[in-house]
## 1
Amino acid sequence: MNALLDYQAPADLLKDRIILVTGASDGIGRAAAEGFARYGATVILHGRDTNKLDAVYDGILAAGGAEPAVLPLEFKTLTAELAKEAADWVEQTFGKLDGLLHNAAMLGDRSPIESYKPHLWNDVMQVNVNAPFLLTRTLLPLLRLSDDASVVFTSSSVGRQGRAYWGAYAVSKFAIEGLMQTLADELENTSHIRVNSLNPGATNTAMRRSAYPGEKPEVNPSPESLLPAFLYLMGKDSKGVTGKALDVR
Ligand code: NDP
């Protein structure tokens, strides 16, 4: 068992914290957002599918969590202007941001580089790299207003060691690691913002099932099992930890 999964969070760990989770409509992001709300956070739920987002919203309220907010945004067409509009809305609604979990991503095709479709390559890079960049740059002023802010990029093992047929997805995750390191270095001595990446490892979600259609889904841990690692990174116990590429398992 990895030490991150052994982390035991106090019940009020995230009280009064405002945390934006991208890709909160499904899979790992959904489990993280629901978990953050259970530990006291007010969560901003980003995704594309408003029906799925509404279901997460309803579930958090039914479980007694603070009222979340919903932020539907398609990342394939996200521009600097749309990202700024989203940040303005966060500012008007909450006035600051304490946590930003970059989790939304698309898999693209499993195919050799030689035959990788250029338009799909662009979509994967746009959703997995450009959109987190655009959101991060425009949300930084709000993160600076927190006295203890945490930015987490969700990575992958193929973002640390390239692997055949993982194409744009692998390259996008390498780029996320580079963005994490660069940003962490810029902010380390000039802000209260820590920046890390987390590789969740194989997890039973729609993305994993699509990448490994021949695998029994239940052999992989549930998204909910990752929660201790996300709580650690979003709460005060990870203060001072920055620029790290972390693994859950
Ligand atoms: P899922 O496919 O279950 O969920 C993906 C989420 O991203 C959904 O909320 C989806 O929104 C959102 N999303 C996808 N495309 C877009 C888009 N174009 N615009 C906006 N939002 C989008 O994936 P996982 O939960 O498995 O993955 C979460 C993270 O974990 C990803 O970064 C992934 O790379 C990483 N990861 C996952 C592993 C695994 O085994 N599952 C292993 C290693 C890393 P909507 O539902 O509204 O479309």
Note: Residues 23, 25-29, 47-49, 52, 74-76, 103-106, 127, 154, 156, 200, 202-203, 205-208 surround NDP (CB under 6 Å).
## 2
Amino acid sequence: MKIKWFTRGLQTLLACLLLPALSAPALENGLARTPPMGWNSWNTFAININEQLIRTTADAMVDTGMKSAGYEYVIVDAGWKAKERAADGKLVANPQKFPSGIKVLADYVHSRGLKFGLYTDAGTEDCDGGGPGSSGHEEIDAATFAAWEVDYVKDDWCKSEGLDAKTSYSKMSAALRATGRPIVLSMCEWGDNRPWSWAAGVANLWRTTGDNKNCWDCGRESMNQPGGYPRGWTLILDRQPALQQYAGAGHWNDPDMLEVGQPGLSIAESQAHFSLWAILAAPLIAGNDLRSMPKEIAAILLNKEVIAVDQDAKGIEGTLVKKEGVLEVWARPLADGSQAVVFFNRSLTSAPITVEWPDLHWTTGRAAAVRDLLNHRDLGSELRRHTALVVSHGVVMLRLIPTAN
Ligand code: GLA
């Protein structure tokens, strides 16, 4: 009895602690009602970018079918700025790499039916490329971005010593709002200041960890040391389950951009990464070279049934629901009452994985149709569980749709 009362007390206490976070006002700029989708230059090109690359990538977004599949933002990451501001204090583009200027580039991206994103830093200097940061220049930079018709600002956190994250990002948020232009704010402070607990009223998305890398679990040794971050995408994944409650329409947890199609990931791993990011309601920001995309990678990024899971209207982030050693089941409740389920096999050999209805908070005996989202096949109906063989480092992704018994 005592234990029961203690548990209830603990639950009430937790509810009181969590409620303010859950009811934090969302940034009501009306944007990012579903997780943003697009492409960003950083993962393949780092600071080796120029206007021609961005133009041809915008063309490839259309030609490959990425645009039709929902990828919308073409985002220029670090490396676009000149080293110094102009005499009037405005940011300027690097004249060698972007001789036509950013407005002309944004116009081109818009002419392809896409939206345009740009990088800055909330500290005094960009992380790479040596451009000036926006600290103390939030208003003039936001006004410049609006004048250039930028639709999405990624705001990094280098050279931010002595700054308070919430104060700094709130300044940029207010400055963007004051321009009157709808601009998505993507905060990139690597989860250092627990942004999920306060950023819903500030930004449309916030990074939850350090940078995702094109490796399975690199960085494991150093990730718990001071200043260390998980790097490999499976380690980033491991940091997400506790954050589920903070995501929703207009304000998303961002486990970082996709490494799908990068050297270092097998096709099975790219598929697993993509499926799991969809379960997480993560922004789907591709980073591979779209101008030379192999068809196996296009098939992953363009899978409409997986994208539909990521973009589900209910906006509930999915999570890990069952773990037996290195065999995992992740699930996400969807707007129509169905659930998306990913079986993830971290082992070095193929293995069967099973989901039991109680893992999904369903009662045994409830009939559900099983849809295979990777092979686009209906697998019949089940009453209590579903089992599938999963390749090493791969996934099986399903939609379980309750049907009348
Ligand atoms: C940081 C960010 C990355 C990228 C680079 C650019 O590391 O987390 O996503 O923007 O800076 O320098």
Note: The chain is about 25% helix and 20% strand.
